[in-house]
Amino acid sequence: MNKLSKTNYYRVLVFSPLKRLIGIFQSVTAAANAFNTSATNIHYACNGQSISCCNLYFRHFYEDKIDIDVFEDLGKLKLEEYDRLAGLTRKYYDNKDMTRKGMKHKK
Asked: For the chain: N or C, fewer Cβ within 10 A?
């Protein structure tokens, strides 16, 4: 049985490099298809095994713990605030480090 296949599926919240809510997806697979990456990468970013994926932050949306109004919170909800409300402890990149992640300097 695949690790990602569970009986309960969570929606996925997407946060920008500036740590603002920019999108909500129905599933890890939908987010992976939208960003042209594997579902495993998105899943690792959601559960904390990696900090980010595709220069974005991802979190599972725990609807039983947190009530988000998409139209009000889109662009306003901060990643740190969501993690605090959900009781999560995660690492973050500094804004300047996130935008330069993966860039290489040519000599």
From this structure: C
Its sign, for the CA torsion 56, 57, 62, 66, is: negative
pLDDT tens readout for residues 38-63: 999 999 999 889 888 888 999 998 88
- Quick check: is 5 in a domain? no
- Which domain covers residue 20, as residue numbers? 11-99
Q: Quick check: is 18 in a domain? A: yes
Percentage with pLDDT > 70 across the chain: 81
Q: Is the pLDDT of residue 104 over 60?
A: no
What pTM was computed for the model? Answer: 0.80
In angstroms, the CA 66 to CA 100 distance is: 32
Rounded distance, CA 29 to CA 35, Å?
A: 10
Exposure class string for 40-78: b at 16+ Cβ within 10 A, else e: bbbbbbbeeeebbbbebbbbbbbeeebebeeeebeeebe
